[in-house]
Design brief:
Length: about 270
């Protein structure tokens, strides 16, 4: 009887462990999905969303969109112990290397995902990190916002920014994302990383500006390069390489035909003479 009871207990435990919803790997996958960046390209953010800025003034997205400059949006929270500060520091380091001016060429927007945070917390964050943006005009160009859970969650969803509060770590789990918005408030590009290459940030700003920023070389790069979401960088794809190779082949063939025709004309003229 004792062995039979032990057998029943073991079998019950095995069946319980094999239930689809109880697998540790599935739990990890669910958590990763709940704190990930999904595709939100071309989504228009709600301009009526209302927040409070770091000065304590009411701030709606209508004050930015539609506007004249693209916007670099960072979602996170100001008392984050690690990743948010790392993303912000990496962003400012990249922007400091870009020959575009904050306020004139682009604007910066930080929005807290924690409804408990206050304008005072936002101001403290700005005081610490603003000196790391080694560009004039950063104070006016950068706004830090706090707001209620409804407005914050709606903006995050529109940007594909998935997050959740972890009771285990007592922190928000979220992706390290930079969201580039067009002057109309449409998501143009998203870069997910904790380090950002200055050339990628520049191209993302030029792309988001819809042609108002950048040089001819920038436009050539955007025509030749494709953003790879796996590496989170602008790079040549196989299709682009084939197109470039095809164009080069056509040019070389045309040049060879021109040389041959020119040589043939010279030979014909010499024969006539």
């Amino acid at each position: 009887m004792k062995r039979f009871l032990l057998f029943l207990m073991a079998a019950t435990g095995l069946l319980h462990a094999q239930q689809p919803g109880m697998s540790p790997s599935r739990t990890i996958e669910a958590r990763d999905e709940a704190a990930s960046q999904t595709n939100s390209i071309d989504t228009l953010v709600d301009r009526d969303l209302a927040f409070t800025d770091d000065r304590g003034y009411p701030f709606t997205l209508k004050q930015l969109f539609p506007g004249k400059q693209p916007v670099v949006l960072m979602l996170g929270y100001y008392h984050c112990p690690a990743m948010c500060g790392q993303v912000l520091d990496a962003t400012f380091r990249a922007l400091s290397q870009v020959d575009l001016r904050p306020g004139t060429d682009y604007r910066i927007l930080s929005v807290s995902i924690d409804p408990k945070e206050t304008p005072e917390m936002a101001k403290a964050r700005k005081d610490v990190f603003l000196p790391r943006l080694q560009k004039a005009g950063g104070d006016d160009a950068w706004r830090l916002l706090v707001g209620d859970a409804t407005n914050t969650k709606k903006l995050a969803d529109q940007c594909g920014f998935q997050f959740y509060w972890s009771e285990h770590t007592k922190q928000y789990a979220h992706p390290p994302s930079l969201v580039f918005l067009t002057p109309e408030g449409r998501v143009s590009r998203v870069i997910v990383n904790t380090e950002f290459d200055a050339s990628d940030v520049r191209l993302a700003l030029v792309e988001a500006s819809k042609g108002t920023l950048g040089t001819v070389w920038d436009k050539v790069q955007l025509n030749c390069l494709t953003f790879d979401p796996r590496t989170n960088t602008y790079s040549l794809t196989a299709m682009t390489i084939m197109r470039v190779a095809g164009a080069v082949t056509v040019v070389v063939l045309a040049l060879m035909i021109w040389i041959m025709l020119k040589k043939e004309r010279k030979q014909h003229a010499a024969a006539v003479a």
